[in-house]
Design goal:
29% helix, alpha+beta, 103 residues, elongated
Length: 103
């Protein structure tokens, strides 16, 4: 079953330009087999570039631990080099009705 998935990432690097495009390509490759969508917010801070990525959608992840394992396996060198922080929530679909859980 699919789960509601919310992932927030903060990426930072020395200012070189086109950081948003680089993060866009990295996320497209990382999540190419998963139906997640993202919004990127770019900021310039002194001699550094920062991109906040808000990723959300339905995925087959059942827990935050599964997301971390996936990222550890497929994240790649630049993902880990630029990643400065993250927040994630995975809400698995529960069977049954929301009031009693059995219907």
């Amino acid at each position: 079953m699919n789960s509601e998935t919310f992932l927030d990432f903060c990426f930072v690097r020395e200012a070189k330009g086109n950081f948003g495009s680089d993060i866009q390509e990295m996320l497209a490759e990382l999540f190419k087999e998963i139906r997640l969508h993202w919004y990127l917010e770019e900021k310039q801070i002194d001699d550094a570039e920062m991109v906040i990525a808000e990723v959300k959608g339905m995925s087959r992840f059942q827990s935050e631990e599964e997301v971390i394992e996936f990222l550890e396996d497929r994240g790649g060198e630049h993902f880990w080099k630029y990643l400065q922080g993250y927040k994630m929530f995975v809400y698995p679909v529960k069977k049954g009705c929301s009031s009693c859980g059995t219907h």
